[in-house]
Design a protein that fits this description.
By secondary structure, the chain is an all-alpha fold. It has one domain. It is built from 21 helices and no strands. It starts with 7 loop residues before the first helix and ends in a 14-residue tail after the last helix.
């Protein structure tokens, strides 16, 4: 296997991992066949469902047309990137007998193909998973007319399809690349991770803007101005809102966690390769793949155990979901311990992945404390609604700020655990421990994505039930599942943010390791003087400048996305108000034009994709060219720290406001239509773009910037002292393009002359 000198056991184990990846995909197909056999309910339910399905398909089709040209350009760039830096010693060893030019071509082709594969796999996870969520929602609504347990099982298994696609495709792609390239795999895996991350950024940004523009516009006019239910069929934006749940929460989150899944394995293999060079043992790069394979098997078992009883209780649903999660966690820990005892012959790697699993559980519990309706934080926000929207918003802000503190302290303790576990060892061991913590945290990706997709599936089912005017008992079942779905969505957002930070720290370690390798191999710098040995010192002004710039990027990104939501939501509000003035619409004798609202949200989302991607890709390159790799390292540290704090704050505040509103809608403080309810709707409206657009989009942003820096670092370190006119022109041109992208994103809202009709 690629000059690895693997033992027979290791060779067999890697092929078994490949089979497990295929087993995960087979399990997803099995669940799909089970879901598709379920009934779809009444003709009216299917009519609403068809409108949602067509809107989602149209949005995804237009998104693909928008991003395809950029993917094509970057594929070419990645191929030619290998012509600037000579092949790594590992690549020359893997393809011994070939000339350096031939090796360069192979690595270039491998990196380009891996980039395309990562992008396609990320797209498949998002699109196929979203389509299955749409298929599942109408079947959940139909099942709710019979029993709570059946509705829960269908909703969770429909979400599990997305989870197992994430697991299966992620493990399949990484394992195939590893089998082909062996010790040179990191060169190609960088392309795979970058493709997955870039598509996740597109799907997160586009889906987030779409869903929240529709949601905010529908709520402000429907609930506040007209005092009608959330999914009232007279509201022109209601279909766009239900479509948005799928393109934002299903497609966006699935792609987001998929790329975290890939990025952690990329970092783990790069750092593991460095340990192979130190110790001469291959186990450091085999272990991460075996851990991932065990995680897929554990997720299959745990997710299949999730099923509810016949009692209509939300606690029943949460207990069933938790039971599946903890079963998978228990199986994983036992298997990892066996792997450590009989293969690794040491316990440090096991402790690292175990800490990752514990981290996921702790973040789950911290998120519940801040966003679950059974805890004091959400109850306090709901109580604040009695004195108006301002006090409710202030309480939610306080909850979000505090949540950021606890979560970053937990992450700090997690990284400290890696230091303690590898105490007295070379720093590369500590960084490897951090990477293994990230791999452990995402061991249960199948469970986490299933929990996330469960939320929008239940939300859509509830909307279908309301629009189809189903009986009160089934509506209550769907409302209970919807409330649980809000909590599971908030939990998985917390896990996604935490995994993004751990993955980014792992990539930061890979950044240092890669630069040091180039310094030794190509620049003749002794190991004691490389960047990995000397470190990046924040006391250097140039590094501090990089950290300042990096800290500002998440704030700029969030500002541009929230502005985009506000502009589009304003147009949705105008459109919904206009349609409510149509004679007969409020009386229900005239049907609203749902397509127009879908078209407005779609146009708004597509307009923002490329400028934001340009900012994420070019800004780290500009800093690296102008200020050097040390400043670029400072930028990465700033992005990670600032991005984590901001993302947790926004996601937690938004989730808490949303659930406080749902508590009031269930009858608290006067229920629907009361002054307390109107205040809670305003709070939820403020929180929507925070929790579903800006906050989640920071996860792929952090990793896009880290991967771009990792790809560019070997080039930048060799040419940073070679300041030529071409280098200066390149940096200035990149800076001008970034400024232009910011200006374009900040331009005024859509004029009335812009196209707003959906092309169904």
């Amino acid at each position: 296997m690629g000059s690895l000198h693997a033992t027979p056991f290791e060779t067999i184990a890697i092929w078994v991992v490949l089979l497990i990846a295929l087993l995960g995909l087979g399990y997803a197909m099995l669940l799909r066949s089970q879901i598709m056999r379920k009934e779809k309910g009444t003709a009216k339910m299917q009519e609403v469902w068809n409108a949602i399905r067509q809107g989602a398909d149209t949005y995804l089709g237009r998104q693909l047309k928008t991003i395809a040209p950029l993917v094509a350009v970057l594929t070419v760039v990645l191929f030619f990137s290998v012509y600037i830096v000579p092949p790594s010693p590992q690549a020359l060893e893997r393809f011994a007998g070939m000339t350096p030019d031939q090796v360069r071509v192979i690595i270039g082709i491998g990196r380009a193909i891996a980039f395309i594969m990562g992008a396609i796999f990320s797209l498949m996870v998002g699109q196929f998973g979203m389509r299955m969520a749409v298929q599942g929602s109408v079947r959940v609504a139909a099942a709710a007319r019979k029993s709570f347990g059946e509705a829960l099982k269908i909703a969770y298994r429909a979400g599990t399809i997305t989870g197992m696609l994430t697991d299966g495709l992620g493990l399949l792609g990484g394992t195939i690349i590893f089998i082909i390239f062996g010790i040179a795999a990191p060169d190609a895996l960088l392309g795979f991770g970058f493709g997955a991350t870039l598509l996740a950024l597109f799907m997160r940004v586009g889906g987030g803007i779409f869903t929240k523009a529709a949601d905010v516009g529908a709520d402000l006019v429907g609930k506040v101005e007209k005092n009608i239910p959330e999914d009232d069929p007279r509201n022109a934006a209601v279909i766009a809102d239900l479509v948005g749940d799928n393109v934002g929460d299903c497609a966006g989150m699935a792609a987001d966690i998929f790329e975290s899944y890939e990025v952690t394995i990329v970092a783990g293999l790069i750092l593991g390769l460095a340990l192979v060079a130190i110790t001469g043992e291959v186990k450091w790069i085999i272990f991460p793949l075996l851990v991932r394979g065990i995680g897929v098997l554990a997720s299959i078992i745990g997710t299949y155990l999730v099923r509810g009883g016949r009692n209509d209780a939300s606690t029943n649903a949460m207990s069933a979901i938790n039971r599946g999660f903890y079963t998978s966690a228990g199986i994983s820990l036992v298997a990892f311990a066996a792997l450590a005892a009989f293969y690794m012959n040491e316990w440090r790697a096991f402790l690292s992945v175990a800490v990752g699993i514990i981290l996921a559980i702790v973040i789950d519990e911290l998120t519940k404390l801040s966003t679950d309706t059974h805890h004091g934080a959400v109850k306090g926000i709901a109580a604040a609604s009695k004195t108006g929207a301002a006090t409710l918003i202030l309480r939610g802000l306080a909850v979000g700020f505090e949540s950021s503190v606890w979560q970053i302290l937990v992450i700090a303790l997690t990284i400290l655990s890696a230091v303690v576990i590898y105490w007295g060892q070379d720093v590369i061991f500590v960084l490897y421990g951090v990477a293994m913590t990230g791999i452990g945290m995402l061991t249960l990706t199948g469970n986490n994505v299933a929990m996330d997709s469960f939320g929008p599936i239940c939300d859509n089912a509830n909307g279908i039930g309301e629009m189809a005017k189903l009986e009160p008992k089934s509506r209550q079942i769907m409302a209970d599942l919807d409330a649980v779905g809000n909590t599971t969505k908030a939990i998985t957002k917390g896990v996604a943010i935490g995994s993004a930070v751990i993955a980014a720290v792992s990539l930061f370690g890979s950044f240092l390791a890669d630069i040091s390798l180039v310094q030794q191999a190509n620049m003749g710098i002794p190991a004691a003087q490389t960047l990995l040995a000397t470190g990046i010192r924040i006391s250097q002004p140039i590094v501090f400048i990089g950290a300042l710039v990096g800290s500002s990027i998440p704030w700029l990104f969030s500002s541009l996305m929230i502005n985009a939501v506000a502009r589009a939501a304003g147009l949705i509000v105008e459109e919904v108000r206009r349609q409510f003035r149509i004679p007969g619409l409020m009386e229900g004798t005239v049907a609203p034009d749902y397509r127009r609202a879908v078209g407005i949200s779609t146009a708004a989302a597509q307009r923002e994709l490329i400028p934001l991607a340009i900012i994420a890709v070019l800004l780290p390159l500009v800093i690296g060219i102008l200020l050097g790799v040390e400043a670029l390292g400072g930028l990465l540290a700033g992005v990670i720290l600032s991005g984590q704090l901001l993302a947790v704050f926004m996601s937690t505040s938004g989730g808490a406001w949303d659930n406080a509103k749902k508590m009031i809608e269930d009858g608290l403080y006067g229920g629907k239509g009361s002054e307390a309810h109107k205040s809670s709707v305003v709070g939820d409206t403020v929180g929507d773009p925070l929790k579903d657009t800006a906050g989640p989009a920071l996860n792929p942003l952090i990793k896009v910037i880290n991967l771009v820096s990792l790809l560019a670092a070997p080039v930048l370190v060799q040419y940073q002292y070679n300041v030529t006119a071409g280098v200066i022109i390149t940096a200035v041109l990149g800076l001008v393009i970034v400024i232009g992208a910011v200006i374009f994103s900040k331009r005024g809202g859509f004029g009335r002359k812009e196209k707003t009709s959906a092309e169904f």
